[in-house]
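ugh ok fine here u go
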Amino acid sequence: MKNGKTIVIGVIGSDCHAVGNKIIDHVLTQQGFNVINVGVISPQEDFINAAVETDADAIIISSLYGHGELDCQGFKEKCNEAGLQDVKLYVGGNIVVGKQVWEDVNKRFLDMGFDRVYKPGTPIEVTAEDIKKDLGMIK
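structure:
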């Protein structure tokens, strides 16, 4: 049963990791979300255009190849320019190069305008529950 919320997902930049993206798509669809999957090797504009076209409630960006920080630079600003100020932004995976202090990584992405940031290995079910809370679906 659909829950009425639309989420844009995909793998940003030159990252071609499709397995995790498929798992995210499957789990969120099973939980009732309308999932718009822009796929892998996706530029920022693909996420933003899909969100505008579908009146999305949230965008989830995945990255496993360590360059997510570079790929996500300016993403919030572009969302704002496209009228997506109210769309929740999530990012997760192996989003930085090498092993870095998680609290520092988390802060940098929050400062970039993301609402939530997930460590490598975070189950998508955790993200789904956060989305439900953030969108007022559960308390």
